[in-house]
Amino acid sequence: MVNYTQEIYRKLLDSASFPGKLNNIDNINIENNTKLSNGAIGIAITLLDQEVTFYVENHTQEDIKNIRALTMSNQADYKRSDYLFLDTNSEIDILEVRIGSFEYPDESATIIHQVNDLSIDYQTKYIKLDLSGPGIKSKNSLYLDGIKKEFLERLSTINKDYPIGVDLILVDKNGELAFIPRSSKLSWEVL
Q1: In the chain, what are the domains?
Q2: CA gap 70, 77 in Å, rounded
Q3: Which residues pair with 120 in a beta bridge?
């Protein structure tokens, strides 16, 4: 398990360094008894510990019990949580999550949003997300299926006053992940 979490951590750092770059983490070697995708549970095992809190959208008590057993982390309300695991086409109002302060920007939440599919190749009926900012030469594009444009609008709103805001990790059902730091500027169109 240690080798697996180290591999995920390296891939998260790589994706954070190059926003919009896809990395695959779907080689999980544990039994996943939660509603989270294999990629999302891998991220949970890598990032959560007894010092942080988490929230899982539309969870069952069995989900929470299993995540706590794997990570020793505690569940909290999404408004106070360190890590939020959101469903495909999430209904959570992210305007209410922790965004830190100018004195303590590190006190913000990180959102792990499960999506149906992530791609760097053109896809119709997807949202085309264009990224610019640190770590990006000019512009990177991602094609997303399973995220609402309202979510992206709210994300842009809470990330407008960098360094406050939230970091976003997208993970699809095939274990593809992309990291979108709060410093990235976003624009999008529905194809």
Answers
A1: 2-119+148-183 (3.40.50.11310)
A2: 19
A3: none
Q: How many CB atoms within 10 Å of residue 15?
A: 23
Sheet strand arrangement including 185-190:
117-119, 140-145, 127-132, 185-190
pTM comes to 0.95
Query: Rounded to an integer, what distance in angstroms lies between the CA atom of residue 94 and that of residue 52?
Result: 19
Joined together, the tokens standing for residue 44 give: 């949970």
Asked if residues 155 and 99 have their Cβ atoms less than 8 Å apart, the reply is: no
The H or E element that residue 167 is part of is strand 167-172
Please give the chain's pLDDT, 191 residues, in tens.
678 889 999 999 999 999 999 999 987 667 788 999 999 999 999 999 999 999 999 999 999 999 999 999 999 999 999 999 999 999 999 999 999 999 999 999 999 999 999 999 999 999 999 999 988 888 999 999 999 999 999 999 999 999 999 999 999 999 999 999 999 999 999 98
Strand pairing class (167-172; 140-145): unpaired
26 vs 43, 116, 154, 161, CA distance in Å?
10, 14, 29, 34
Contact 78, 133 (CB under 8 A): no
Which tokens sit at 82?
């360190």
